[in-house]
Amino acid sequence: MASIESNSSGHVIYVPLPSLRELITESKVEDILREEGLVEDLHAEAEAKRIVQTSMKLFAILVSRKRGADILKFLDEGISDTDLPFVMKPARAGSERMTLQTNGGRDIRTLIEWTDSDVKSLAKKQWRMLAPVFEQDEHYDFPVAQILPFTNSRQIEIESGFSEVFQAFIHPAHHNFWIFPGCRDRHAVVAVKKLFSSDPSRFQNERDMHITLKRTSGPHPHLISLLFTYKEGGKFHLVFPWADANLRNYWKRIPLERIDYHKVLWSLKQMTGLASALSLIHGFQLPDERQPGRHFARHGDLKAENIVWFASYPGCTDADGILQITDLGLASLHNIGSVSNGDPAGVLCTRTYRPPDNHRNHRISRKWDVWSLGCLYLEFVTWIVLGFDAIVEFAELRGAEGEMYGHR
Fold first, then answer.
1. What DSSP character marks residue 319?
2. Residues 207, 139: contact at Cβ < 8 Å?
3. What is the structure's pLDDT at 360?
4. Contact residues for 291 (Cβ-Cβ < 8 A; gap 6+)
């Protein structure tokens, strides 16, 4: 049976959906039923159709364990693909012998005839056929044994105080998003952000920000799109499109030996777009009528490293690509009546972009982000006029003064 290695799940094997559909066809199942004498010839076609339509994965699991002949026993119990994954439990209280239940907690009588080793093997190997199909905006709670359809995953690309990010490729048959026209057969390249904290509130805060902004205002071209989230091994993960570079690396990668009209125009468009995205974060109407009034959020950590560049993106017609704000991990949402609801001491914003409110110990407001955006624009203009080396030199000069005044 055709299979692929998932190196995000400990270098284990899974069978992608196209391979399952290619191998478990009605004609092939019908042949097996006839050859094994499991049904009368008169009923073989109908039973094969029932197996493929309702229990393709279950049948593939049983065949891989050389127990394909038991498929009709499972079906007679009313067990199908919707009952997967099976869950292991003791056959009786205090017994060392194990058996399996459906995901709904129903005992599987057929397994009484199986040996203990066969039951354990079924419980372990079933995951090869159960790689999920990811849907946009969904959240998944995965058991430790779950095999994810990630291939060619890279080691940690980015690490911060709160999370680490790695690149992964999702099999084209196992997602329903991030599809360019004519690219349906290509893997989705994604950035998987794994939070260090197991505290659900930190995760829920970032997820809710993305979901609420998208649902109230629609996708913004300059705000990163959250694809889906999942929990695995007690850790929360957020999955985004993989960008080609962050803005600082983009400045470093693209040398400007002279002022280029087209690049200047593109830069101004991007700066305008980033301001528009930040404005969306700062103020919007919640759809819940039980919470009337304008609400606002702040980003909390605007910097060049949290602006990403896509060379191409769905809906973007600019040959130079597009910039997007990312990393809403420090963002928070407040009612307009609670302006400045945050303590600067608890915000780990990069020193270069901290506003005067930080060392004056003022409460944090949206002005914090506006200051940071202004600092970002100053670096942007420095790059346009003098290039990336000037940004580095400018930072070094500010660093000497910054130490003197306790901020940078």
1. T
2. yes
3. 61
4. 335
